[in-house]
Write a structure and sequence with these properties.
It is built from twelve helices and no strands. By secondary structure, it is mostly helical. It has one domain. α1 (about 10-30) packs antiparallel against α9 (about 210-235) and α3 (about 65-85) packs across α8. The protein is globular. The relative contact order is 0.24.
Length: about 300
């Protein structure tokens, strides 16, 4: 596959924007659909769109790769499912900002599992990101957050971090579109049985949702499952997992800003300061990242 001429940083920034917007819109969708409903739509639409696109581009049907299916179970599988459940119990701003822990988990796992070394610039970026994450996670006192909701969001971030590190090993030399389509099939192994159980038990809310919320649900599916994963799988071959994680610290910032603009939620002064730290961390991580290449495994 020909390498993308677009900067990996630009692709990661677009992926971060897409994930951030989806985090805010998820709160709107959950007003009328249940977390399993939303999860099933996200995965089903992702699998259908990406498989169709891969076939249209000439991909030949073949047995899915076990490692890629496993990636899909981690993210978008468990990561999205846990996030959707968590967001039922916390404000969109709070849930989005807690996603900053994803980058911290990813950097730690990349050092331990991939042997990636942290230079001076990345160390400063990591410190700024850690400080920003701590500030972002502070409850302003006016948010509808619970410990269980926060814990589910952090668990989603951990699942996404494990995916990010393992993807660095798996995606090399693979077609990004076909890879992402296979990944969605792995997530479907979690989503479809769960959806079947919910429908059989009479707990699905999809048939009761109005057209507006169904449209938002489908938009969330595109922004959370289709667009960002294709962009990420293209970009990750050109940067280390550590640098990708630090660029993606912008996900919670984009999500929080979208929640303020679209949902009318508010950020406390400490959370605004944390956002500034996150921007600094992401900026430091992008300096020279286009020339950076991971040592081959």
């Amino acid at each position: 596959m020909a390498k993308s001429r677009t900067s990996p940083v630009a692709l990661l920034l677009l992926a971060a924007l897409s994930w951030g917007l989806s985090a805010a819109l998820t709160k709107v969708a959950l007003e009328q659909v249940s977390p399993p409903d939303l999860f099933a739509v996200e995965v089903a639409m992702g699998a259908l769109v990406l498989c169709a696109a891969a076939l249209a581009r000439g991909a030949r049907p073949s047995r899915p790769s076990i490692p890629v299916l496993a990636l899909g179970i981690l993210d978008p599988g468990l990561a999205i499912l846990l996030f959707d459940f968590g967001l039922v119990h916390t404000a969109a701003t709070h849930g989005a900002l807690l996603l900053a822990t994803d980058s911290l988990f990813t950097v730690a796992l990349a050092v331990v599992l991939l042997g990636e070394r942290i230079g001076g610039r990345v160390a400063v970026a990591l410190a700024a990101g850690f400080a920003g994450s701590a500030l972002l996670s502070l409850d302003s006192g006016g948010t509808m957050s619970t410990l269980s909701g926060d814990a589910l969001v952090v668990a989603a971030a951990l699942s996404a971090a494990v995916y990010a590190v393992l993807a660095r090993r798996v995606v090399a030399g693979r077609n990004a579109l076909s890879l992402t389509a296979e990944q969605m099939l792995g997530a479907a192994a979690v989503a479809l049985p769960l959806a079947a159980v919910m429908i059989a038990a009479g707990h699905s809310h999809l048939t009761h949702a109005d057209a507006g919320h169904l449209l938002v649900t489908m938009t969330v599916a595109l922004l959370s499952s289709v667009v960002p994963f294709v962009l990420y799988n293209i970009a990750i071959g050109g940067v280390t997992a550590t640098s990708a994680a630090l660029v993606l610290t912008l996900v919670p910032l984009f999500g929080a800003l979208a929640s303020v603009v679209l949902l009318g939620e508010h950020l406390a002064a400490a959370q605004l300061a944390g956002g500034a730290f996150v921007v600094v961390a992401a900026g430091l991580a992008t300096i020279g990242v286009d020339a950076e290449r991971a040592i081959p495994a």
